[in-house]
Design brief:
The complex is a heterodimer of chains A (315) and B (539). With 315 residues, chain A is mostly helical. Chain A has 14 helices and no strands. Chain A is flat and about 85 Å long. Classes of the chains: A mainly alpha (315), B alpha+beta (539).
Chain lengths: 315, 539
């Protein structure tokens, strides 16, 4: 298992270097002059040229790329933001807890609500309970998260005055953002769980368990659910990654200064160090999340654990 | 069961569609809605007003963008303009076109290219550091070496000549109006010692009436009034450097609809980030007042002067101008109609232009077709380059519709602003450029950016117009001796005759504030609120 993790980490480095080259190249060829954006409309061509020179933007592509790769992977320095004036890594680490916090809380709700909903639907397949659960899931998937966010703000902040509408501070500030992030993914988890459960529902070992006189509750919990977990784990892992990577909309609506909003600001202001830093961070985060998902597979399914440990493939 | 689900979904879709269109029925269309400026309400004389010695407790301001940093240069976001003048101070303030001393005790123009400036000998920053001539020199040289010094063409050098005296050396005699605005009024002075020991991007130390209490990047900035502000003589404290409120909290609210909610539920007391469509929420409000004014920003059409473009043909340009209804364009952009290349917010705007009948104000399809027939237009697509913002796109679409009437086919290219500013540098990318300009107190300075070819290496204006007469006139009208009503009017007439530029509108700005707390708003020269200098009711 250790060897497997080590190999994945090595591949992660290759992936990150690849991502770094791609994002650098894309930004290099993106139209829009960062120096002009920084100095504003009143600046003359000469003033813009001086700033471009001091920022190193007039250096050839290869030199700029080389400097960027050396700084990032050897010095672990994402550089200083041109607009914030602070080191990108420091600002990312400042903002990360908020985004991760929302992601983790949303993931918890997605798991606690989505999986039981899916199990409930699967165990009542064809009945009104199944239909109701799937209608609820369909509704939750259909609602755009920014629309849901604005409706919740109008109801809970404006009409009822229960929750603050924007910003950070207390835990109450995070209630609505977490619910908005979780809503759609609850539905996806529910549908995935239902689908996976139905696949194992009529398996031989389930019939055997029932024939042995096992209670239905135990059959579902100890026999069906563990065997249906693999796609669900993938879905939960993807959901968490998506919440962190796609947090820009929710952070923008609720004015939460997280990684998503940082990246958005960087893109609109052509702040290349921010964009590069955030993209690399998100790439690393996604790679680590996928590794954790794979390790969860190993924990859940001994056949996969044996595979990772370098044993023979078990048919 | 499946049929039931499908039926439920269908009914819900129909209901939501009906509800949506039902809510649209009663709305006025933009074409019928007109906005106008308003005045601030009269101060209630029965209530006590706060002063620097008897301050109002706390005011919360909603800002629409993240200030990014609290450094006193590199202003990329509007939010900067609210906060920086509270923390830092420059040598002068610009008020109604005049340089009003702030840190300066006196100055002497020793000759055409040298000024000697003496600062007060009792200026201290937040940390108690004494500000001397060394700090003034350090502040200027730091800005210049940072690369963020804009409009510093006249600045050559600064040197210390005494403990509290510095000498400025200009590159040439100062003959241009507004040439020193940035140098004297937008360069902030700070202590070298504070600079070495603090990171000003997150922990600024200035001489202003407020100090930083807390800064959460992307979320809020809290400023606290200084009890030990260095200027004790209240008669010398600039009107823009008051501290009538103890705590100013700036909350970053990036979503404009959230500003409406925050104002309604009392989370903030002021916002200027509310859109025009949301103003009706505050009509007839007992608590909130809407103050509308015309800003300095001017939206205009700039015609491409390059020979490759059809817009270099004067007859074509006149056909475009007569084919446009300026009032319709202003309504499309939700702005104020412009009768000339400026508005009353500029000190050198000529009021009689309001009554003039010319190509800017006349909509005459017959005349437009006449000019079009004389031009070299052969039915090709004419490209209008604009930003992807809603206002610009609406204006471009309105132009497209009007010019189609005349027989001109318009192709709209709407792009994100940074990309638009790149594309305008290549004359093959556009024929008409929908641009914005506007800065400072004088209209002629606003014209510089679009008309003056001194800024561009290709030798033409921003849109490649190479007209020596235009260049001569714009250069002359910006000088102290040339800035006369006659010359301004002559340039206005010349632009009209040549049809180089078409004024579309100026932007309205909407300030919504709690009128039970804020008695009177105070604005900087650039029309940004100075929260500390506003008047507040104590009762």
């Amino acid at each position: 298992m250790g060897k497997y993790i080590f190999r994945r980490c090595l591949w992660m480095i290759v992936i990150l270097i690849g991502a770094a080259v791609v994002i650098f190249t894309i930004l290099y060829f993106t139209p829009g002059d960062p120096a002009e954006r920084l100095l504003g409309n009143d600046a003359t061509e000469a003033e813009i040229k001086v700033l471009r020179n001091s920022m190193g933007l007039d250096d050839p592509y290869v030199i700029q790329l080389g400097q960027f790769l050396v700084n990032t992977f050897i010095k672990f320095d994402f550089g200083k933001s041109w607009t914030y004036g602070t080191p990108v890594l420091k600002e990312l680490l400042n903002r990360l807890p908020r985004t991760i916090g929302i992601g983790l809380a949303a993931m918890l709700i997605e798991v606690l609500l989505g999986i039981p909903l899916g199990v409930y639907a699967a165990t009542h397949q064809g009945k009104w309970q199944d239909s109701l659960a799937m209608i609820v899931a369909m509704l939750l998937i259909s609602l755009p998260d920014f629309w849901l966010a604005l409706m919740m703000i109008v109801l809970f902040s404006l009409k009822l005055g229960w929750l603050p509408s924007y910003g950070i501070g207390s835990i109450l500030h995070y209630v609505m953002p977490v619910i908005c992030c979780a809503a759609g993914v609850i539905a996806v988890n529910a549908r995935q769980t239902r689908s996976s459960m139905l696949e194992v529902f009529r398996a031989d070992f389930i019939t055997t368990a029932r024939a042995k006189g096992q209670e239905e509750k135990i059959v579902v919990r100890k026999h069906m659910l563990p065997n249906a977990l693999l796609p669900i784990i993938t879905q939960v892992g993807n959901g968490f990654t998506r919440v962190v990577a796609g947090s820009a909309i929710i952070e923008s609506v609720f004015s939460i200064p997280g990684v998503g909003l940082y990246l958005l600001n960087g893109i609109s202001s052509r702040d290349y160090p921010i964009v590069r830093g955030c993209v690399l961070f998100l790439a690393a985060f996604t790679a680590v999340s996928m590794l954790l998902v794979d390790l969860c597979y190993a924990y859940t399914d001994p056949r996969i654990r044996a595979q990772y440990s370098g044993g023979r493939r078990i048919a | 069961m499946k049929r039931l689900i499908v039926t439920v979904c269908f009914v819900m879709t129909v209901l939501t569609t009906v509800a949506f269109f039902g809510s649209c029925k009663g709305e006025n269309t933009n074409a019928s809605k007109t906005t106008s400026t308003s005045t601030q309400p009269i101060i209630n004389a029965e209530k006590r007003l706060a002063t620097s010695s008897s301050r109002y407790d706390k005011v919360v301001i909603g800002v629409g963008s993240d200030p990014l940093s609290l450094l006193c240069w590199n202003f990329t976001e509007v939010a900067h303009y609210y906060m920086i003048p509270e923390i830092y101070e420059s040598l002068y303030d610009l008020q109604n076109g005049e340089y009003v001393p702030v840190l300066v005790k006196n100055h002497v123009e020793t000759d055409d290219t040298h000024w000697e400036v003496e600062i007060y000998d009792y200026i201290y920053d937040t940390e108690g550091n004494h500000i001397t001539a060394d700090d003034v020199v350090f502040s200027y040289k730091s800005l210049v070496s940072s690369g963020y010094a804009v409009n510093y063409g006249n600045f050559k050098d600064i040197e210390k000549i005494d403990t509290y005296k510095v000498r400025f050396t200009w590159t040439m005699p100062i003959n241009i109006i507004g040439a020193l605005e940035k140098v004297l009024c937008d360069t902030y002075i700070f202590s070298e010692k504070s600079w070495q020991s603090h990171d000003f991007t997150t922990d600024p130390i200035g001489t202003g009436p407020y100090k930083l209490q807390r800064f959460i990047s992307g979320s809020s900035v809290i400023l606290e009034a200084k009890d030990n502000y260095w200027q004790k003589d209240t008669s010398l404290v600039s009107p823009l450097h008051q501290s009538n409120v103890k705590i100013i909290e700036f909350d970053v609210i990036t979503e404009s609809s959230q500003h409406v909610i925050a104002l309604e539920n009392g989370s903030i007391e002021f916002s200027d980030s509310v859109t025009e469509t949301s103003l009706k929420e505050f009509e007839n409000s007992n608590r909130m007042n809407v103050y509308t004014y015309e800003g300095h920003d001017l939206t205009l059409l700039e015609m491409n002067g390059d020979s490759l473009s059809i817009a270099s043909d004067q007859n074509f340009r006149k056909a475009v101008f007569y084919g446009l209804d300026s009032s319709a364009l202003a309504v499309a952009g939700n702005g104020a109609l412009l009768k000339a290349f400026g508005n009353a917010s500029y000190s050198d705007y000529q009021p009689d232009w309001e009554r003039e009948q010319n190509a800017f104000t006349q909509y005459d399809v017959a005349k437009a077709k006449e000019y079009l027939a004389k031009s070299s237009y052969k039915g090709e697509d004419v490209v209008i380059l604009c930003s992807s913002g809603e206002s610009d796109r609406n204006i471009a679409q309105t132009i497209q519709a009007y010019l189609l009437n005349v027989g001109i086919k318009i192709k709209i290219v709407s792009e994100e602003n940074n990309i638009k500013m790149q594309d305008v540098k290549n004359p093959v990318n556009f024929d008409i450029f929908l641009a914005m300009c506007g800065n400072g107190v004088n209209m002629t300075n606003a014209w510089r950016k679009v008309m003056d070819n001194g800024d561009y290496s290709h030798g033409g204006s921003e849109t490649f117009i190479k007209d020596p007469d235009l260049q001569r006139q714009i250069s002359f009208v910006r000088t102290v001796s040339g800035h006369t009503i006659e010359n301004i009017k002559a340039l206005h007439t010349y632009i009209l005759d040549k049809a180089y530029y078409y004024p579309v509108m100026s932007n309205y700005k909407y300030c919504i504030y709690n009128k039970n707390i804020i008695a009177e708003l105070c604005f900087s020269n650039d029309m940004y609120i100075i929260a500390g200098s506003c008047k507040y009711y104590l009762d």
